[in-house]
Specification:
Layout: E1 24-35, E2 42-52, E3 56-60, E4 70-75, E5 80-90, E6 93-98, H1 104-111, H2 129-132
Antiparallel strand pairs: 1-2, 1-4, 2-3, 3-6, 4-5, 5-6
Length: 142
């Protein structure tokens, strides 16, 4: 099943990844998080990232058909969240665009990770500086 254009109007506002010139082949596992319909909870699908660039990625999963038009790509213990829009869906893989371009150093650091499941564990304190800088830290309250 192929959907050449996303059904949700906001997907057209995201930068396109069709012209990604610096795409890297990777083998990373992450979670796709999205709200459950009508509930105040999140669903999660484990996805494999097979190609990534500053503007988007190609994801694979057995459950990729359930991936909504908008979702968060989650790395670590919810330490890094990237807002994504699904652009197309073809035979078990989805091309997605990021809401904003990521820094090349961050994408390069992800591409250098050799153990695919490393991105499912806590990243803080054990990863390269480019990834550490991208980790969202909770604001301390007094």
């Amino acid at each position: 099943m192929q959907s050449p254009k996303a059904r949700h109007y906001l997907a057209d506002l995201y930068p396109g990844n069709e012209t990604a010139t610096n795409e890297r082949k990777v083998n990373l596992v992450a979670r796709a998080l999205f709200p459950a319909p009508g509930l105040k909870s999140l669903h999660s699908i484990q996805v494999r990232i097979v190609r990534i660039s500053e503007s988007g990625a190609v994801l694979e999963s057995r459950a990729i058909d359930y991936l909504p038009d908008h979702f968060y790509l989650c790395f670590g213990a919810r330490e890094i969240l990237i807002t994504c829009a699904r652009k197309s869906l073809v035979k078990g893989s989805a091309a997605v665009s990021f809401a904003r371009n990521e820094k090349p150093a961050f994408i390069d650091a992800l591409a250098r990770i050799t153990f695919p499941l490393a991105t499912l564990k806590k990243l803080g304190g054990i990863c390269p500086l480019a990834i550490e800088e991208r980790i969202t830290r909770p604001v301390a309250t007094k």
